[in-house]
């Protein structure tokens, strides 16, 4: 549509003027530009899981991060990234890339991270990484790499981290080009095919700055390194290494281990003697991981471990706790991990001697109560007891752990909290008791912990929170009591003077409950209201009337919406003068009134979901001129006309998924000059010309990104269901209906005027032309048939002259001279069309005699007869026409009868009025004219009356 195209062009031009950086957001065929709050921020493009087989060519040039993971790309071509000079992060993992053209990355001078994990590369060529001088992290894990060219890494002068796990490297010489990298600090070559790892096998000496080396999951029988090659090595991972005879640790120079601070030996095939020898020589070890090592631990390995004077962190997860009896000698430990040890009870006094322990993990076990040894750990700061079977907390459980700052008791079976449980926590800041079976919290928080800042009581079955339940938590900032079927008594939140965030699922919330929460900035309320629920406290929302500092307000109903309390919700919103974000899901039955946000002028983020907004009043958004994010998903919207208003000029993010939009009027976006992100997914689009303007706008505008637009499918008409909306051919819709109507009406007017003009001035000429055409057709047929003439002459006369014809002409021409004449009243075939009779008579006769009078000239049929005869005269060039004038007619009177006047000027004619008394001479001239043969007429025809 031409008019729509002009409107679309206007939108584009306006967008370009208002946004000097047009590449920040627009619709891509297969990818999505991630929404960011700052329009000047970096551009992040997500092309993951898009079934791509090649790198798209519509990636914006300003992009800094691209994700191509989980696609079907098989090859990287030299030109694929030629225009992405600002790219810093490139993710190509989980594809089928088997070939990369040399110099494919030569234009990516700013790239710092390249991820090619899970592909099908087999070798690294000399110029593969040319141009990547700024690359700091490279992941080539899970490929089939078995060959690395000696010059493959020469361009990676800034590389710090390299992952080559799950490949087919076999010997240390394969990685020699890597060890020469000047800034390499982390190297992972796990899951390869190394049988030995000995630096003496290197072709020439190198000195690497490597700090972390991961050679796990290799069947290495000998591990031998020298300080010359790895002078700065700090961490080694030998997990799942070794062969049947056991791994041999061969480090002859004892000066090297002084740099080693971390060692992971998990499920490693190594003899007890060998590992003990290794650990005895590691005098600088700080962290040791011994996962899945029960065999050597049971032989007393911990006795050796605990003698390492520098050891601070010990990970014994995935082992059996029964083998940990020697832990009592590890008094120097600060961090101990005993998670996933399948223990139901710690041996008594196992941890009593760990006087320096700061962090203890006992999560994911079978503990039914808090281990007694916890009481002796006065230095403990972090304790994780989550995912156990603890059902009861006693007053003595944490009696001496006064230094705890974080306590995790989530996902247990705790039924109640006693008042004495947490009274000794003077420094506790984080407490998580979510996902338990709590029915009451008792007096647990009436006196403290006074320093607690985060409390999670969600996903329990608490039925009642009473006054003063939280009065001891003066420092609390975040409280989550959601997913509890809770009733609140009066002033239940008294004392929470510093609370900033509250999440709650309740059935009643009184005004006085939270009137003390003057610092509250985020309030999340979750409901589960049954359709029969009617005992709703009228002061439910009135409780938040005093929340003048609130910035985030979320109300979500998981049951049926309760629109009958809308006046209370509106009154609640009136008090929130600083509200910036409001979410209402399944709350309204119908669209909220236009005055809903009258007092929320600072609102920036508005979400209304699962609500019937089909009759939305556009005035709803007039009080919120700063609105930047609008989410109206699943709201039965059928039109976007409500967006066409200047009050939404600041809107940048618009989500309208799961609605009933069939036709999109792209002109509404003219009033949204800041819009950069538009999501219309899962709407029943119509694929016809009604959406042609929107399709053109999506493809041409370079301001607004229509997310996944090229994946939108057709719902109407039925024949187009399942097709892509963007594949609809809009070329057929470019005809402007208005212009077509204008042209049609103009043509109709002109045709009417022309027809009137022709009828008034040229009707006889047109009629003459028409009959000449019919005569031409008839003449052509006669020539083909070659039929003989039936009559000597056809007499053309007017009915008023019929008496003269019968009285004067017939007696002489038929009676005396014997000619065969054709007269229309006598010889025309009955029932036959008159024009066909006339044509047959003229062409069936050798001559045509026209008996001309003033009445003859005024007769329509006589005019047609002479026109037909004159056509035969000039077509056949034969002397076939005889003109008989019964009366004198001046030449000027013949002017209206243009054809007759022309004939009179060119042919000899006979005048009855001039014959006088000499009628015999007149009829003799007629006889002579009838006797004239069919020879062509002379070119110089005589004019004037024939002599009588």
Automatic annotation (TrEMBL):
PROSITE patterns: LRR, TIR. The chain crosses the membrane at residues 733-755, 761-778. The keyword Transmembrane helix applies. It is a single-pass type I membrane protein. Belongs to the Toll-like receptor family. GO terms for cellular component: plasma membrane. The keyword Nucleus does not apply. It is found in: Membrane. One of its GO terms (biological process) is inflammatory response. This is Toll-like receptor 13. It comes from Channa argus. PANTHER family: LOW QUALITY PROTEIN: TOLL-LIKE RECEPTOR 13-RELATED, TOLL-LIKE RECEPTOR. Its main location: membrane.
């Amino acid at each position: 549509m031409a008019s729509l195209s002009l409107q679309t062009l206007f939108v584009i031009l306006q967008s370009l003027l208002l946004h000097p950086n047009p590449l920040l957001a627009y619709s891509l065929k297969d990818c999505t530009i991630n929404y960011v709050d700052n329009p000047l921020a970096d551009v992040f493009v997500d092309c993951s899981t898009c079934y791509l087989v090649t790198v798209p060519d519509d990636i914006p040039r300003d992009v800094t991060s691209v994700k191509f993971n989980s696609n079907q790309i098989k090859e990287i071509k030299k030109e694929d990234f030629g225009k992405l000079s600002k790219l810093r992060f490139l993710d190509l993992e989980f594809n089928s890339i088997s070939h990369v053209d040399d110099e494919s990355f030569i234009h990516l001078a700013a790239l710092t991270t390249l991820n090619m994990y899970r592909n099908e590369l087999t070798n690294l060529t000399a110029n593969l990484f040319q141009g990547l001088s700024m690359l700091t992290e490279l992941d080539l894990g899970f490929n089939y790499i078995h060959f690395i060219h000696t010059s493959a890494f020469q361009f990676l002068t800034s590389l710090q981290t390299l992952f080559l796990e799950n490949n087919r490297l076999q010997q240390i010489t394969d990685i020699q080009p890597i060890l020469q990298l000047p800034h390499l600090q982390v190297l992972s070559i796990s899951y390869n095919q190394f049988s030995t790892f000995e630096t003496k096998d290197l072709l020439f000496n190198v000195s690497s700055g490597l700090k972390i080396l991961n050679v796990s999951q290799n069947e290495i029988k000998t591990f031998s390194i020298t300080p010359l090659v790895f002078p700065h090595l700090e961490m080694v991972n030998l997990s799942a290494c070794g062969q049947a005879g056991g791994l041999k640790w061969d480090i002859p120079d004892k000066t090297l281990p002084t740099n080693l601070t971390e060692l992971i030996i998990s499920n490693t095939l190594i003899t007890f003697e060998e590992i003990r020898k290794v650990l005895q020589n590691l005098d600088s070890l700080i962290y040791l991981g011994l996962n899945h090592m029960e065999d050597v631990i049971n032989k007393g390995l911990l006795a050796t471990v605990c003698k390492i004077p520098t050891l601070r962190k010990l990970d014994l997860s995935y082992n059996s706790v029964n083998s940990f009896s020697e832990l009592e000698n590890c008094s120097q430990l600060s961090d101990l991990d005993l998670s996933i040890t399948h223990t139901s009870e710690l041996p008594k006094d196992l941890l009593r001697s760990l006087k320096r322990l700061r962090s203890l993990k006992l999560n994911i076990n079978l503990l039914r109560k808090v281990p007694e040894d916890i009481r002796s750990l006065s230095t403990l700061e972090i304790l994780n007891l989550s995912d156990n079977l603890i059902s009861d907390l006693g007053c003595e459980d944490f009696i001496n752990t006064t230094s705890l700052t974080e306590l995790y008791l989530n996902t247990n079976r705790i039924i109640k909290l006693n008042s004495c449980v947490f009274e000794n926590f003077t420094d506790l800041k984080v407490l998580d008791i979510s996902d338990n079976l709590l029915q009451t919290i008792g007096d647990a928080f009436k006196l403290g912990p006074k320093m607690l800042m985060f409390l999670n009581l969600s996903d329990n079955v608490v039925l009642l929170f009473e006054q003063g339940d939280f009065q001891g938590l003066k420092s609390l900032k975040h409280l989550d009591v959601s997913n509890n079927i809770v009733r609140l008594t009066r002033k239940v939140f008294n004392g929470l003077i510093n609370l900033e965030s509250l999440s709650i699922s309740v059935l009643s919330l009184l005004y006085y409950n939270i009137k003390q929460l003057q610092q509250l900035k985020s309030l999340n309320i979750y409901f589960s209201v049954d359709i029969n629920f009617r005992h709703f406290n009228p002061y439910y929302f009135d409780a938040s009337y005093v929340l003048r500092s609130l910035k985030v307000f979320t109300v979500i109903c998981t049951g049926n919406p309760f629109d009958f309390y809308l006046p209370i919700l509106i009154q609640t919103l009136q008090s929130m003068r600083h509200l910036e974000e409001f979410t209402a899901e399944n709350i309204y039955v119908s669209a909220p009134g236009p005055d809903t946000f009258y007092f929320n002028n600072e609102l920036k983020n508005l979400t209304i979901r699962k609500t019937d907004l089909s009759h939305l009043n556009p005035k709803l958004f007039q009080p919120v001129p700063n609105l930047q994010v609008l989410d109206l998903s699943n709201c039965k919207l059928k039109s976007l006309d409500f967006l066409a208003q200047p009050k939404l000029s600041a809107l940048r993010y618009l989500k309208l998924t799961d609605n009933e939009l069939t036709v999109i009027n792209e002109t509404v976006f003219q009033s949204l000059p800041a819009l950069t992100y538009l999501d219309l997914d899962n709407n029943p689009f119509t694929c016809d010309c009604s959406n042609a303007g929107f399709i053109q706008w999506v493809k041409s505008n370079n301001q607004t990104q229509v997310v996944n637009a090229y994946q939108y499918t057709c719902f109407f008409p039925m024949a187009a269901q399942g097709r892509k909306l963007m594949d609809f051919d809009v070329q057929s819709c470019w005809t402007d209906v208005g212009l077509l109507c204008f042209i049609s009406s103009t043509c109709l007017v002109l045709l009417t005027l022309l027809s009137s003009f022709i009828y008034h001035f040229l009707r006889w000429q047109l009629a003459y032309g028409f009959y000449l055409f019919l005569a031409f057709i008839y003449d052509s047929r006669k020539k083909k048939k070659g039929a003989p003439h039936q009559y000597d002459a056809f007499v053309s006369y007017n009915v008023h002259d019929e008496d003269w014809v019968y009285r004067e002409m017939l007696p002489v021409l038929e009676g005396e001279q014997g000619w065969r004449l054709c007269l229309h009243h006598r010889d025309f075939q009955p029932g036959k069309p008159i024009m066909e009779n006339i044509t047959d008579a003229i062409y069936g006769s050798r001559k045509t005699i026209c008996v001309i009078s003033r009445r003859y000239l005024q007769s329509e049929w006589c005019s047609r007869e002479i026109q037909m005869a004159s056509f035969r005269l000039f077509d056949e060039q034969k002397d076939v026409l005889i003109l008989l004038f019964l009366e004198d007619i001046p030449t000027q009177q013949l002017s209206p009868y243009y054809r007759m006047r022309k004939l009179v000027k060119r042919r000899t004619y006979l005048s009855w009025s001039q014959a006088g008394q000499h009628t015999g001479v007149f009829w003799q001239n007629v006889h002579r004219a009838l006797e004239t043969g069919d020879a062509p007429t002379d070119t110089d025809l005589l004019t004037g009356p024939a002599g009588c």
